[in-house]
Amino acid sequence: MSAAPQGTRRVHLVAHFPGVNSTTVWSDPASGSHIDFESFRRFAQTAERGRFDYVFLAEGLRLREHKGRIHDLDVAGRPATLAILTAMASVTRSIGVVGTLSSTFNEPVELARQLATIDHLSGGRVGWNVVTSPDAFHGGNFRRGGFLPYAERYTRAEEFVELAKELWDSWEAGAILADRAAGRFVDPARVHRVVHRGSQFDIAATSTVPRSPQGYPVIVQAGDSPAGRDFAAANAEIIFSRHTGFADGQRFYRDVKGRLPDAGRTEESLLILPGATFALGDTDADARERSREIALAQTSPQTAVAWIEAIWGRELPGLDPDGALPTQDPGDAETRQGQVSTRVEDRVARAEQLRDRARREGLTLRELVAAETAQHTLVGSPETVASEIDRYVGERASDGFVLVPHLTPGGLDEFVDRVVPLLQERGVFRTEYETDPTTGAAPTLRRTLGLPTPPRPRTEVRRVSVADPLAKPLLDDLEREYDARYGVEVFGEPASTELNRYPADAFAEPDGAFLVLLRDGEPISGGAFMRHSDDTAEFKRIWTRSDHRGRGVAKVVLTELEREAARLGYSRVYLTTGPRQPEAVALYLGHGYTPLFDPALPADQIGIHPFEKALVTASAAALIEQEVAA
Length: 630
Known about the structure:
The chain is built from 19 helices and 26 strands. Strands 1-2-5-6-11-12-13-18 form an 8-stranded parallel beta barrel, surrounded by 5 helices. Strands 19, 20, 21, 22, 23, 24, 25 and 26 form an 8-stranded mixed β-sheet that branches. A 4-stranded antiparallel β-sheet has the order 4-3-15-16, covered by helices on one side.
């Protein structure tokens, strides 16, 4: 990979295989199939020859319609995204493959498994463009129908991505042993069950796929609303932006990257890549003429009439697409044009604005629609386009572009052959992919993009005193809940008659141990045990911070408490949990504890639930090991 001159910024380029809107001029004789894999193979290999970062696929979850009928002017029948990504990865070596997949109409465990699978098979070259699928038009294809209200779409998406990351992180390094001599393939202690209970998902799952070479897929996002921008700042690593104007791009760039510090992130951790169409020519004038011809080809007569009818809010029978705009006054009907309804705040004002432009520029109806809807982002000679891309990136209007050709699969060829070499000469674009210096292996997508591999969550159990700052947040929560539920202080004399039958020193300040489970240095769970007068001890209720409840961390603390108690020589431990806590009861029963109450009784009739368990102490364990050795 060539070094960039000092002070220059690297350009990122992505190749978008279009086909779910009118960008693709499928009627052109040079256009190929959108179903035959040969088109995808050629497109991906051309992008790799141009040293692009990745190939991108949008996805339509339902055929486009107009007035309730299939919009037969569009490409239809394209195979499913995950299958295409897998196939493209198999015929390329270094370029990434990224697909659009909905967080509204998929489920976390299955989609996380599918993406992790392709990430493994591709050597870590997969990305996921997270979309929220806003409308009931798409929802009609799914069991629950309808669509989520706006406020809930990003709530679901955020929880979906968070849960997917938990699943991807649930296999520790070294989980696969493949120990032929011992006959052990995997270390169960390093594969963690993910238990999640949130507003959108209630899941208890064990991921079937280990963590992939790049940690997990690169997260791409395209939302532009305030909620979408916040979601991107917290979760995304690439934004597929619609802000293609230079000044508009700079404003969007400043806004989104300005949100990153509040999310604990740096500017380099998020790339902003606007979608960009292009038209090249030997001169800038040639390119402008070619752009006009392409725009007209992208705007069929039927599409032009449909667009005008949507703006006018009424049907306009007999309208000539090569004639003038309608003289009739606008109506108020909303018409679905393509996938979405066209809403206009002031139809009369908008109609007059279009008439003025048509008169001023001498445009027919179709030419006007093309000028309004099909203008290209990068138009000029190869030198002009290369210079413009460098300017956008250098002056922080973007970090590069997602290029959308009007033809497939050959629409990218000219750009790769004529513009990419100029960017390479400027020193702002790679000449080769950066391979692993030791093994020579192809790069992961994260390495190609310059993004860090996500660190595994660092989890450790630390023994502290109850006065330690690490214990305080957990104990404060515990104190509040015990006061509210039982009228008892956590570390003090019991005030509840229900608790008087248990040893008084079970509620004294512990001189045994208080263990805190830390995740990346933050306390998320903990527990204590207090010694009794004999060789038994009582575990204080295992406590988990509210934002981590239901995720299996209590099991980790319970295991560590048992190990510590056994190490100190205790032979038996006792546990209690309050009423109406079925998750805690299930945890203790699953951990080998015997209930000291009748489990058949309704939970609200038992009050405090006591449990006991015999431990293998450190001294007993040593004796067992000696016997085995003998």
